[in-house]
Amino acid sequence: NNSLIILVTLVKYPPVLPLTSITNPSILFFSKSSNLSLNCLEATDENVLQTIADDKLQRTNDIKSFIDILESIDYNAFVSIDAPWGSGKSFFVRQAEMTLRYNNKIRFDKIITEEEQTAFEGNTVLRDLELNYTYFPIYFNAWLYDNHADALLALVLVAIKQSQKYIDTTLKGE
Fold this sequence. Notes:
The protein has helices at 45-54, 60-72, 89-107, 114-121, 124-127, 151-163; strands spanning 3-10, 77-84. It is globular. It has a two-stranded antiparallel ribbon. It is built from 6 helices and 2 strands, in the order βααβαααα.
């Protein structure tokens, strides 16, 4: 099986219990018009922002639909995106991640890079999203930690590193 499954963990702030899963997988859909062929485009920040700006992959509406689905979940959940290798799962998740990060920067008056400003300036659908919840997107590329002895420890390390963009993680007395 050449599939890669990407798990996106949603933790709403404030957390809502109990922990459950999506029982209706049919709500996870993407338009058939989307161009899912990304075999020769790496999901770097630069490429992701460029595709948000020019929407050559025609994913803007799919990303908005995905984020709308996230907004409709009122409990902690795990969302799985499963498709054959090379179909663009990583790229799609990175586009959603960058959109959520951009929204956080707007919401919390954080510095927006020139590249982010340019990308979202031309994409009014993603730029003008009005979210009810705040998300802390963590992009964890499992392939980079494939040989790591403890996958959970690697995930926690990545979460801590990425949280430094939002919160002060220094210990008192440092």
